[in-house]
Amino acid sequence: MVESSSNEDMLRQRNEELERELKQSHEREEKVRQELEIALERLRVAEDAEERLCSQLGDLEAEAVDQAHTYRAHIVSLMHQLAAAQKLLQDAEIDFVVDYESMTE
């Protein structure tokens, strides 16, 4: 009977030990689950931020292309104005030379 009681005590102690280990295991599992949820939330926030940044970058690229086209059109317009002004100066110079020659005769 003493041996049976001793076995029961050992089994009871082992059972209590296993229950403590199981409880600790559940606590660790819950902690890991919470950490995973936090990591997933951070990932979601990072993905949302990446989407916003990509969208903003696309908008900025489109704006830069538009500004480049506007700038190029302005440069072309200035080139045409400069060419017209140079032609006027050349025509005026020819007229001046012709008028000067007729005055010296």
What would you say this structure looks like, in words?
This protein is mostly helical. It has one domain (1-105). Helices cover 98% and strands 0% of the residues. The protein has 1 helix and no strands. The protein has one helix at 2-104.
In short:
The protein is an all-alpha fold and 105 residues long. The protein contains 1 helix and no strands. It is rod-shaped.
User: What level of helicity do the residues show?
Assistant: over 70%
Structural class: mainly alpha
Proportion of residues in β-strands:
under 5%
| Termini Cα gap | 153 Å
Count of all domains? 1
Mean pLDDT over the full residue set: 91
Q: What is the tally of helical segments?
A: 1
Order of helices and strands: H
List segments where confidence is low: pLDDT < 50 over at least 5 consecutive residues.
none
Quick one: overall form? rod-shaped
From the alpha carbons, calculate the radius of gyration and give it in angstroms.
Answer: 45 Å
Largest sheet: number of strands, sense, barrel closure: none
Give the tally of β-strands.
0
